[in-house]
Specification:
The chain is of the alpha+beta class. The chain is built from 17 helices and 32 strands. Among the domains are: 260 residues, Beta-galactosidase, Chain A, domain 5, CATH 2.70.98; 106 residues, Sandwich (Chondroitinase Ac, Chain A, domain 3). A hairpin with a 2-residue loop joins strand 28 and strand 29.
């Protein structure tokens, strides 16, 4: 009878729909699980350079940026904090300091519960089942798991329910896979079931990553492979969202997302590059090259000495965001090296060496200029400093407000201009900002609340297509027609390795409010001074000058007004709150010191400005700097043109003529941005179409007609370089 029963059970088992994997597939899953576990546990090795830098930064107490949350998981284990979790947990498995009824859409408090379980699981796994330092360790973990499984907290923001929570719990479940009871494993799968394949861009990657963790949890090879294939399908270029042709990253429409979705994308993809290395799931050469190029041709430009450019943060203006996001890029570079060629590893190492200690005292190795034509942004990197300009157009959204992030950032795409030497010039200055005086922008002077950007940038478009830049890779000109919120202006920037020249013309509005152009607004480091009668004077409080071409100096940066202007300089203590512009933060007043320098334009229209920024200089250099070699040939609504040494920079907003030298007349027939330089008696022309609408650009140099065609396969807005055959006498008087 017993034999018959066993035979019956065996027969029944043979008809169950059980998936059978080959030993190779089983080994692959186990290898991936081991790689995953190693990435979670080894990230706490404080011998790693980037983790040592991180360990020197006080941990954040309020976080809603997933990248920062994952970065904090790399902190060395804090046993005192772990002990607090164990001592304070309630009998029902909850923690008394977590608001499980929180209704915020960003920085959802209940997610801390999942974060703590992951932290506990990592230490438990690192110590092993024989952990003896606390007999209650395992009990607390199961208590906390049971509370979540029983109460099933839900956030009003879908992102937490489908991405954030499964993404945090998934690694914890993998670490506890052999320790969970069958009923716990069943509930764990339900949590992971909230994530399904779908959506686009980085959201698609996040969701597929959660499905992959579910597959690893269930030992489901087919599900893991499907998730892997979905993730890898996003390693491509040429789509409306994702990696763009200039190696920027877009999401939520045509909007630069370097510091938000793009950073999460690169962090995730570099993680999977390392996770799948050595298995049949590994990235192919093309996929690996795309990720490497995104970092070395894109992100490398917007990190300076371990800080991310503010223009790359967009809406994520969190505390210490420039440091955290730069470290995340550093971690991505390290992850990418495992699957890269020696040549790419060399580039990735160069990025790391340029940004993280020990750095060369001789300055940055990676220098040059790049205009991101898909994102309306320009970066210039000199050996001792970096500058960036962010614009917006009818093509490109300037900023966004989502989930109460960036409540005051309405003007952040209106020509925001940041200058860096140390990298931390604007670190945590945001609570003390006048948000109508973001560096570089032209806007109203008013105490009224800053307009609120509508979700997904619908209210932040600049109603102009004329926005772009031209560059030869070393120097260049960037320009925009500003037509937004009732403000009209022609704004241009010329960047060389010595300075940034800023021009403005046609500045006007129908409003009765004054217009201002902000030159700089940053945290105070040393004194703000102005030069008058060959003597430097310290600004204490507010100093106003009327109709004077003054020079200013602060924090190794000189500022020269090149035409009489009504200037306002401020050096003062200020107070503010992070919650004023980032709604996820708890309201709390903070204090600090800031300096501000701006031009107050006369109401007579149209107004203009000309000023020079000298980064990484002394007071003596600022005082003695000669501006005679900077020849502003035109600065009006039709054209902005400048001659510097043997180079001419011209932005033509409409067709027109300009005499560049005694025997050199330039006739521009197609509006655009142009650079003309003399090289060995020949003229080299760089040109770009800021409207992205032209198939060719036409001009005449004296009687020489030149038609510059858009090269086949080249994206509109890129710089086009030509060297026409023009005899040397035409350029003999160019200095």
């Amino acid at each position: 009878m017993r034999l018959l029963t066993n035979t019956f059970l065996l027969a029944a088992f043979l008809f169950l729909p059980v998936k059978v994997f080959s030993q190779t597939q089983q080994n692959e899953l186990e290898q991936i699980r081991q790689n995953y576990t190693r990435s979670l546990i080894d990230s706490n090795n404080d011998s790693d350079l980037l983790n040592r830098i991180l360990a020197g930064i006080p941990p954040e107490t309020e976080m809603s940026d997933q990248v920062v949350v994952e970065l904090h998981q790399r902190y060395p284990f804090n046993l005192d904090k772990i002990k607090e979790y164990m001592d304070n947990i309630n009998e029902d498995g909850s923690w008394p300091d977590i608001d499980y009824n929180d209704t915020k859409r960003s920085g959802w408090d209940a997610k801390k519960h999942a974060d703590r379980i992951l932290e506990l699981a990592k230490l438990y796994h690192a110590e092993g089942p024989s952990c003896t330092w606390s007999p209650r360790f395992s009990t607390v973990i199961h208590q906390a798991l049971d509370y979540w499984f029983r109460t099933k907290p839900v956030c009003k923001n879908w992102w937490y329910n489908e991405i954030g929570i499964p993404k945090t719990f998934g690694p914890a479940f993998l670490l506890l896979r052999t320790q969970m009871r069958p009923d716990e494993l069943k509930e764990a799968v339900k949590v992971m079931d909230n994530a399904r394949f779908g959506m686009t861009g980085q959201n698609k990657v996040w969701l597929a990553g959660n499905v992959l963790m579910k597959g690893l949890l269930l030992d489901d090879y087919d599900l893991v492979k499907a998730a892997r294939d979905t993730i890898m399908s996003e390693i491509t270029t040429g789509r409306e969202e994702g990696i763009k042709s200039d190696w920027s990253f877009h999401q939520h429409g045509p909007q630069q997302q370097f510091g938000n979705y793009g950073l999460a994308y690169l962090g995730e993809m570099s993680f999977y590059s390392e996770l799948f290395a050595g298995t049949s799931f590994a990235l192919n050469a093309e996929q690996q090259a795309i990720l490497n190029n995104l970092l070395t041709e894109g992100y490398r430009w917007i990190i300076w000495r371990g800080y991310m450019d503010v223009n790359a943060l967009d809406r994520q203006l969190f505390h210490n965001a420039p440091i955290h996001k730069a470290l995340a890029i550093g971690n991505a570079a390290n992850s990418l090296k495992k699957g890269s060629t020696p040549a790419d590893v060399e580039k990735l190492d160069a990025f790391l060496n340029d940004n993280f200690p020990p750095q060369s005292s001789d300055g940055a190795v990676f220098t040059g200029q790049k205009h991101f034509w898909d994102s309306d942004q320009t970066v210039h990197r000199a050996p001792a400093w970096m500058a960036s300009v962010k614009m917006a157009s009818q093509r490109v959204i300037g900023t966004e407000l989502v989930n109460e992030d960036n409540l005051k950032g309405f003007y952040m795409g209106d020509g925001a201009t940041y200058i860096y030497r140390h990298g931390d010039e604007y670190l945590n200055v945001f609570p003390f900002w006048d948000w109508r005086k973001i560096p570089g922008i032209t806007s109203y002077e008013s105490d009224a609340p800053v307009p609120s950007p509508r979700s997904y940038g619908a209210h932040t478009r600049n109603e102009s297509s004329f926005v772009g830049g031209v560059t030869d890779g070393h120097t260049g000109m960037t320009a925009m027609v500003l037509n937004r919120d009732g403000v009209h202006a022609r704004k241009a920037w010329i960047m060389t390795d010595d300075y940034v020249l800023c021009l403005g013309a046609g500045i006007k509005t129908d409003s009765t409010l004054n217009l201002t152009t902000s030159i700089d607004q940053r945290k105070k480091r040393g004194e703000l001074s102005y030069l008058e009668n060959n003597r430097w004077n310290t600004v204490n409080g507010t100093f106003t000058a009327t109709g004077k071409a003054l020079r200013f100096y602060h924090d190794s940066t000189g500022y020269i007004l090149m035409q009489p202007s009504n200037s306002v300089s401020i050096s003062e203590k200020r107070s503010g709150s992070w919650s004023d512009f980032m709604g996820s933060y708890t309201p709390q007043t903070v204090e600090g010191e800031a300096v501000s320098l701006y031009i107050r334009h006369p109401k007579e229209s149209p107004a203009s400005y000309q000023y020079l920024i000298l980064p990484a200089v002394s007071t003596d250099r600022t005082a003695s700097f000669c501006t005679d070699d900077i020849r502003v040939l035109s600065n009006d609504e039709n054209m902005q043109a400048v001659g510097i040494d043997n180079c001419f920079y011209i932005t033509a907003y409409q067709a027109g003529n300009i005499r560049l030298a005694d025997d050199m007349l330039l006739e521009i027939q197609t509006p655009g941005i142009y650079m003309l330089s003399v090289e060995n008696g020949a003229i080299r022309v760089e040109a770009s179409d800021p409207t992205h609408m032209q198939t060719s650009l036409s001009l005449k140099i004296n009687d020489y007609a030149l038609k510059i065609m858009q090269p086949a396969g080249q994206v509109s807005g890129q710089s086009i370089s030509v060297t026409p055959v023009i005899s040397a006498p035409l350029v003999k008087h160019i200095r």
